[in-house]
């Protein structure tokens, strides 16, 4: 009579094998994490190593005693490699300088007394799309000062879709913007588009802006990372949240911790708005990073009639401020004349938002 083992008995053995496999898997995971750490230390950003995977598969195939066919062993080990790679990469992410896992508390910027982030009241960054003339800047700054706006924006270098569009006033614009802002007790923020201009822009601007189209310009990100000025980093038109945060990491990795993230809407299939404001990106960026996050409502939808509800929504999900374009005469503006608010429009915006902004109107 053959002594057949019962299913229960066999299952008990499987349970024991499972436990051993799990122990081995955990042990493998720990070794993989060490490899990942070593790769990061060596500055190897890419953890994937297909040649090493191939070598392991060949050896396993040669050693395979069965009963599983080689193809099955290959499939199982490919899954193990995939999980190992994910482990290496997630450990890497935990070490990102932008991450809350590295710095738990909110970063609060203090730029000449203007505080941004943490529990500070939300800030407003406002001003025209482009700096066009002294009169235009003077009128705007004076009006916005009266509304308690502490940060004046204005583009001196304009990233225009067409090379024949108005390209900005360049250095003359920088001089104008910074002097007008100073006269009105405001900080001046302006976009820098080229690594060659970082030095001159940093000389005049209190905050450097990296526009959406340059979010992937890694040389520029590194350069502003070396500049001793806070940086406002807009999210790229089609950038994932992860790509956006990695772009910020480029700046922090060069030693500049003063970064403000700015969500400005992303490209989707939607036609009724120019971009789609991604509020989950705001909430996620606040959750995953310690950096202040603001929302550019002007570009978010490309429509004036949505500015107030979008700004309210942005503040409701925890944005640390709003970026909005204001021009004395949007109809005659040299750029973005569809979207900028005139002073009457800004009055309405201010009235609708003031309770949420906690911005006092100076007497
Ligand atoms: O050996 C490495 O370089 C590892 O990162 C470990 C490992 C593995 O799991 O064996 C993981 C991912 C790589 O693509 C190659 C191999």
UniProtKB/TrEMBL annotation:
Keyword tags: Transferase
GO biological process terms on file: aromatic amino acid family biosynthetic process; chorismate metabolic process
Domain Chorismate mutase: 1-92
UniProt GO molecular function: aldehyde-lyase activity; chorismate mutase activity; transferase activity
Entry-linked InterPro entries: Aldolase_TIM (IPR013785), Chorismate_II_sf (IPR036263), Chorismate_mutase_GmP-bac (IPR010954), Class-I_DAHP_synthase (IPR052899), CM_dom_sf (IPR036979), CM_II_prokaryot (IPR002701), DAHP1/KDSA (IPR006218), DAHP_syn_2 (IPR006268)
Protein name: Putative 3-deoxy-7-phosphoheptulonate synthase (Phospho-2-dehydro-3-deoxyheptonate aldolase)
Species assigned in the record: Deinococcus deserti (strain DSM 17065 / CIP 109153 / LMG 22923 / VCD115)
């Amino acid at each position: 009579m053959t002594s057949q083992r019962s299913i229960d008995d066999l299952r008990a053995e499987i349970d024991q094998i499972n436990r051993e496999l799990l122990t081995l898997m955990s042990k493998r995971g720990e070794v993989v994490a060490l490899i990942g750490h070593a790769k990061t230390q060596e500055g190897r950003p890419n953890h994937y190593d297909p040649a090493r995977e191939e070598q392991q598969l060949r050896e396993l195939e040669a050693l395979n005693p069965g009963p599983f066919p080689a193809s099955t062993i290959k499939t199982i080990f490919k899954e193990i490699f995939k999980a190992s790679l994910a482990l290496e990469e997630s450990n890497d992410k935990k070490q990102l300088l932008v991450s809350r896992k590295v710095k738990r508390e909110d970063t609060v910027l203090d730029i000449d007394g203007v505080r941004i982030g943490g529990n500070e009241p939300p800030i407003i960054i406002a001003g025209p799309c482009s700096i066009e003339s002294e009169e235009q800047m003077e009128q705007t700054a004076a009006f916005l000062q009266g509304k308690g706006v502490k940060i004046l924006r204005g583009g001196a270098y304009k990233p225009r879709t067409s090379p024949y569009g108005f390209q900005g006033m360049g250095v003359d614009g920088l001089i104008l913007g910074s002097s007008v802002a100073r006269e009105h007790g405001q900080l001046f923020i302006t976009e820098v588009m080229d690594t060659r201009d970082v030095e001159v822009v940093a000389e005049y601007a209190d905050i450097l802006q990296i526009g959406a189209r340059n979010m992937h310009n890694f040389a520029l990100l590194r350069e502003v990372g070396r500049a001793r000025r806070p940086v406002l980093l807009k999210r790229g038109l089609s950038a994932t949240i992860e790509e956006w945060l990695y772009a910020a990491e480029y700046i922090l990795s060069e030693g500049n911790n003063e970064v403000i993230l700015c969500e400005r809407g992303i490209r989707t299939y939607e036609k009724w708005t120019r971009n789609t404001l991604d509020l989950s990106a705001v909430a996620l960026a606040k959750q995953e990073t310690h950096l202040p996050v603001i929302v550019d409502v002007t570009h978010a939808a490309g429509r004036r009639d949505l500015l107030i509800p979008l700004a309210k929504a942005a503040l409701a999900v925890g944005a640390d401020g709003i970026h909005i374009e204001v021009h004395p005469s949007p109809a005659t503006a040299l750029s973005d004349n569809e979207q900028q608010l005139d002073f009457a429009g800004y009055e309405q915006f201010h009235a609708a938002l003031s309770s949420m902004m906690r911005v006092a109107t100076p007497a």
